[in-house]
Design a protein that fits this description.
There is one protein chain. The protein contains 15 helices and 14 strands. With 404 residues, the chain is of the alpha/beta class. The termini are close together. It is globular. It has 2 domains: 209 residues, Rossmann fold (3-Layer(aba) Sandwich), CATH 3.40.50; 182 residues, Glycogen Phosphorylase B (Rossmann fold, 3-Layer(aba) Sandwich).
Length: 404
């Protein structure tokens, strides 16, 4: 099977960011399929070349188009980047030989080149829903006015109507697709996955990471690894650190990532007098560094602002924590909260009551027996329910069904 895989924000483990498409694509290659990845280079530091550049990553033929983009861009600037890539990707994807087009959102504009290429080559298109657009930008006020909203809803239905199969990241996302009238039997839930092998590192790796920092050493560590966007609400972690300091001043918080809210988070932590004392923000780390960082952590976190539209999310950081055998603390409801309550692999913190959340977190951190049990449960979930190997087989089956 020749797969034309479209993902505007594809990345490899050597770079910061989510690597689902890389992990899925390399497994498809290992199963004997050919994969052409059509993607973009977003930062000048990665090379500000003109036109297209091709590389090979783990057997994947990757076609890169330079389209500047960052989380700090204003919404109109982001939209220009989305459509600039869509135009270039449409021409590139249509020029490649394939049996199926597989497009993964976000952004939703990825449907435009996917449908164009599928129609030009007379091959099926499979669409993957990572977030429920346009519900999210509407909910946070990023998408306003009846005309932009109507156009976004049309694009959503255009993507679904032209897909022979749809992959959803969660049952909540499946429900969102169903509400548009798409047939249920053609929707497949394949959640984000746990890279079990990548995170299978010795305890010494985490200990070595701890020894690099005088402020850490043997102290309890809570980490956040991910985006610093508005929707992530990582300033919550700074407020939590300030509340925890009153109860357990030995606890340290580490926030790794970047995004539009980075300066605001720093300023919030500084105002609370925890920045550089119990709360640290050293910048971004590539995915290959995450195993030793999570190995060093006593608790990992996944955070969002109080927005029900986000409860269906399938955040990478949640699955990375499971893969590393690290207990998870989240501050939102939905299927992940239910999973943690049912299995004991972590805790659910109150998004509004930071003092209550601090008490719950400190209680968990001081219970070493619970931490060991929760970590073991998290790892078991990663292996038995969210192994990337098994999820890649499910995706392969969906693509084969589409072609067949």
């Amino acid at each position: 099977m020749r797969i034309i895989y479209l993902h505007q924000y594809f990345t490899t483990p050597q770079r910061p960011g989510a690597t689902r498409s890389y992990e899925m694509a390399r497994r498809l290659v290992a199963s004997g399929h050919e994969v052409d990845m059509v993607t973009s280079v977003r930062r000048p530091s990665d090379g500000g070349f003109k036109g297209w550049r091709q590389t090979e990553e783990a057997g994947i033929r990757v076609h890169w188009l330079y389209v500047p983009y960052s989380g700090s861009m204003l919404y109109p600037e982001r939209m220009r980047a989305f459509f600039q890539f869509a135009w270039g990707a449409a021409l590139k994807a249509a020029s490649l030989d394939g049996d199926v087009v597989f497009a993964t959102s976000t952004p939703l504009t990825i449907a435009l080149p996917a449908v164009y290429a599928a129609r030009r080559q007379k091959i099926p298109m499979v669409f993957e829903v990572r977030d429920l657009w346009p519900e999210l930008p509407i909910a946070v006020g990023a998408l306003r006015g009846w005309i932009p909203i109507a156009l976004a809803r049309w694009l959503e239905r255009f993507a679904y109507r032209n897909a022979v199969q749809i992959v959803a990241f969660s049952d909540g996302m499946k429900e969102g697709v169903l509400r548009t009238g798409y047939p249920e039997e053609r929707i497949h839930v394949i959640p984000n996955g746990a890279d079990v092998d990548l995170f299978d590192v010795p305890a010494e790796a985490g200990q070595a990471f701890r020894r690099q920092f005088d402020w850490l050493q043997d102290r309890p560590l809570v980490v956040y690894t991910g985006a610093f966007g508005f929707i992530n609400g990582v300033d919550y972690l700074a407020r939590l650190a300030a509340a925890v300091e009153k109860l357990a001043p030995e606890v340290r918080f580490l926030a790794l990532g970047s995004g539009k809210q980075e300066q605001y988070i720093r300023e919030t932590a500084a105002q609370l007098n925890v920045l550089g004392r119990t709360f640290f923000m050293p910048g971004r780390f590539p995915k290959v560094e995450m195993p030793k960082i999570l190995s060093a952590a006593d608790m990992a976190t996944s955070l969002f602002i109080d927005l029900p539209e986000m409860w269906a999310n399938s955040a990478n950081k949640f699955f990375d924590a499971l893969a590393s055998g690290t207990p998870v603390a989240i501050n939102y409801q939905g299927w992940q909260a239910e999973l943690l309550r049912e299995t004991g692999a972590g805790i659910v913190l109150d998004v509004h009551d930071v003092e209550s959340a601090a008490n719950r977190l400190v209680q968990a951190l001081r219970d070493r027996a619970w931490l060991r049990q929760a970590g073991a449960t998290a790892r078991r979930l990663a292996v038995e329910r969210f192994s990337r190997d098994e999820l890649a087989k499910q995706l392969e089956a969906v693509l084969l069904e589409a072609v067949g």
